[in-house]
Each structure stands twice: as C-alpha cells, then as structure tokens.
Amino acid sequence: MFKNYRLIAQPVYDIKHKKIVMHELVIGKKEGRKGSFTKIDDEMSTFFEENYPSFINWLQKELMKIVAKKVYPKISINIRSSQFFRLETMKMFEKLRIYNEQIVIEITEDLVQLPESKSHFTLAELDAFLYGKIRSLQAFGYEVMLDDVGCGINSLERLMYYLPLISGFKISLEKFELSILEAFIAAWKKIADKHQKVMVLEYVKNKKDSSILEGMNLILQQGQWLDKLIKQKVS
C-alpha cells in the first residue's frame, strides 16, 4: 500500500559552524520512472487519514529503520494536531521512546479536524487537550517544536501557551520575501532569546538572505539553496 512512499531528509544547517544539526523527514511519493518525489499534499493526507492504522504502522517501521541504524544523528518529523485524536499516534511514540534523544516532533500549522466524538470542544478545551498530549510527549523524553509559527493555527498566542513544553519553533519564508518579514522575524527572535528557545528559518532562498539572517544571529536554516551548498561541502 505504501511501497511508493519514502521519508525524504531535509537538513537543518548551522550556518555559523558549517554543519548539519538535524534532518527533517518529510513524506514523499515516488512519481514516474525517473524516481522524482512529490511531497505530501492534500490528496496524500486524505489517503493517510483513510488508512490511518496502516499508515502509522508504515511510518513507525520506517522511523525505526532510520533511528536504529543511526543514519542521521537527529531527526524531526511533522505531526498534525488532528493526529493526536488517534490512539495509534501516541502508541507509536510510546514504542519509539527508546530513541527519544534522536527524535524531534514538529507540530504543524494545519487546521484541526475534530472527530465527531470531540465536536463539542471549545477552543479552550481543544488547547487543553493538545497541551496534555504535548506534555505526554515531553514525559516520553521527546523534544517538541512548533512548525511554521505565524501560519495556520500556530499563532503567537498558541506559541506562548505551549512555551513551557516546547524546545523551539520554526518560521517559514516559503511565501514571502525576507525584506517583507524582517521586522516580524526580529520580533520572533526576541521571544526565542528571552525564553531560551531554538528558532529555525525554513525556505531560505539564497546566499544574501542567509547572510542577513546570520547577521541577526539566526544561524539554524533550511532551504534548497542550502541543500546544494551542503552537498558541495560534505560530499
């Protein structure tokens, strides 16, 4: 069922010290004979949701292979808040907890889809439910981060609510130019520094942007431009 799916590694690069500190694993589907991969989209998400027990079983096996072989010193995986309503999700993390020092869990910005049994939840009840799940992950020994802060449901208010439980957060430059977001990013940097949290910039587009961010002491970065640079330096 999942033979054409793979976990694709996207490095998080420490610009200042010129090293890879973590690999984010994203799900991709093999397309065509050339072996190119398409990242997860709405159609794939629906397929995974409709086959959730099988999907989680596949994901767990793939993660076990990677962490057991220590292919990467540290990895991160994306989890949607909606997945915490499925028992299989926490069972997977409980089984993987022996590798907790190698795994970072990123809570994505995707809107929450409440199951029918929880459709009565208020926003406060939803936050309390998710807070409890993140606290359980913390009890298992995992690092937890918020992905794409400022997008979707991962607002400033939500970040501050979960701040005691998370190790850091990510900001995406995918849809905006750095010049537009620079003041916004500087504000987030103050929050990260004040609370001693890690801050990662995703979708860094070029050397100029990377240098500007480094000048702001934002040295943890991801992006296709950096991927090419990394290959040149480590291969």
Describe the structure.
The protein has 235 residues and is an alpha/beta fold. Helix content is 42%, strand content 23%. The chain has 8 helices and 9 strands. It has helices spanning 42-50, 52-69, 87-96, 123-139, 156-162, 178-194, 207-215, 224-234; strands at 5-14, 19-31, 36-39, 75-79, 103-107, 143-146, 168-172, 198-202, 220-221. Strands 1, 2, 3, 4, 5, 6, 7, 8 and 9 form a 9-stranded mixed β-sheet that branches. Helix 1 packs across helix 2 and helix 2 runs parallel beside helix 3. The protein starts with a strand and ends with a helix. The model has no long low-confidence stretch (mean pLDDT 89).
Sketch the major β-sheet: 9 strands, mixed
* End-to-end separation: 34 Å
Find the count of extended strands (DSSP E, 2+ residues). Answer: 9
Structural Rg: 18 Å
Q: What can be said about this structure in brief?
A:
The chain has eight helices and nine strands.
What is the element layout, followed by pairings?
Elements: E1 5-14, E2 19-31, E3 36-39, H1 42-50, H2 52-69, E4 75-79, H3 87-96, E5 103-107, H4 123-139, E6 143-146, H5 156-162, E7 168-172, H6 178-194, E8 198-202, H7 207-215, E9 220-221, H8 224-234
Parallel strand pairs: 2-4, 4-5, 5-6, 6-7, 7-8
Antiparallel strand pairs: 1-2, 1-9, 2-3
Helix pairs in contact: 1-2, 2-3
